[in-house]
Backbone:
């Protein structure tokens, strides 16, 4: 069977605290399992567990490796999509830059491996079978522990000479005198409004000691939203701050990449009813799009977006064109 006509693939979506392994067929995840890991671990030590899980899932679904077009590997960092190497890891899986992942896939499964930044892979998934289906010009933002970004122009993922174009949406500066980000920049979207930055943002808010949030051991967006709904002033002020930051980041991405649709995903979208209309209204008022309004949509595929991006990624040639 010609490789490009195969409709099954293996997929791995690596995050700071998980490695989700899957067998996909077309736009469906037919089996998946999430391994709970820690980004402080060496990826070298996690790979045998990933390989075992992929073997178990293919056995379970009776899918032979030879039926698969390859392995798509989503990584939370900057990756060289041409040679399959990780270039920069932003404090997670710091040994990954030394690993030969395509070699690992060849030796373990006799399959080719394509690696991609996790947000870009999620965008591919949403375009293949989710919120951005039938669009060719897309920006995706994921709001969560960190903030991911990705862009597609005229049907091709934006990657750039050093593979970092579009995927640093979380590191666009939105506050000139803002917080120091773990990327080295100041006032990034991610430093101003992501889960990792949230506890510090709350603690620095005026009146924090009197806030109900001061009694909470872990402050995340779910907690923040609960306390805001109960009328806590600090929680409400921080929510509003975060909404403003995300909306400013969204306008920056729109001005940079000229999309028809903006897809927003990530854990924060559990509060989509509050997040989506705010960003929509802000964009309508402030984005310079003389041709009309950018459609703003919630991601449809949730945690499966990057997995469903596997087949479109594997079907691209190295130049990024569909084959
Ligand atoms: Zn940053």
Residues:
């Amino acid at each position: 069977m010609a490789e490009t006509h195969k409709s099954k693939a293996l997929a791995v979506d690596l995050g700071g605290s998980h490695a989700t392994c899957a067998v996909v067929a077309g736009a469906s995840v037919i089996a998946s399992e999430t391994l709970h890991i820690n980004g402080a671990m060496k990826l070298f030590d996690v790979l045998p567990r990933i390989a075992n899980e992929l073997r178990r899932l293919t056995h379970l679904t009776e899918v032979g490796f030879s039926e698969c077009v390859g392995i798509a590997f989503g990584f939370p960092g900057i990756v060289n999509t041409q040679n399959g190497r990780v270039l920069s890891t932003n404090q997670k899986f710091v040994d990954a830059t030394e690993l030969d992942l395509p070699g690992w896939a060849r030796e373990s499964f006799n399959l080719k491996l394509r690696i991609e930044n996790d947000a870009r892979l999620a965008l591919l998934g949403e375009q293949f079978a989710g919120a951005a289906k039938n669009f060719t010009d897309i920006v995706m933002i994921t709001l969560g522990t960190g903030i991911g970004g990705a862009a597609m122009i005229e049907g091709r993922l934006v990657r750039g000479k050093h593979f970092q174009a579009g995927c640093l949406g979380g590191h666009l500066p939105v506050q000139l005198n803002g917080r120091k980000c773990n990327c080295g920049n100041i006032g990034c979207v991610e430093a101003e409004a992501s889960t990792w930055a949230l506890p510090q943002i709350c603690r620095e808010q005026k009146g924090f000691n009197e806030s109900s949030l001061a009694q909470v051991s872990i402050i995340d967006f779910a907690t923040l939203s609960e306390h805001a709904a109960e009328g806590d002033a600090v929680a409400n002020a921080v929510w509003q701050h975060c909404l403003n930051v995300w909306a400013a980041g969204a306008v920056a991405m729109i001005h940079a990449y000229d999309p028809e649709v903006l897809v927003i995903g990530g854990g924060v979208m559990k509060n989509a009813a509050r997040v989506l209309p705010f960003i929509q209204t802000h964009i309508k008022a402030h984005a310079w799009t003389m041709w009309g309004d950018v459609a703003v949509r919630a991601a449809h595929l949730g945690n499966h977006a990057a997995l469903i991006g596997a087949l479109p990624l594997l079907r691209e040639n190295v130049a990024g064109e569909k084959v």
User: Anything to note?
Assistant: The mean pLDDT is 94. The first helix runs from residue 43 to 61.
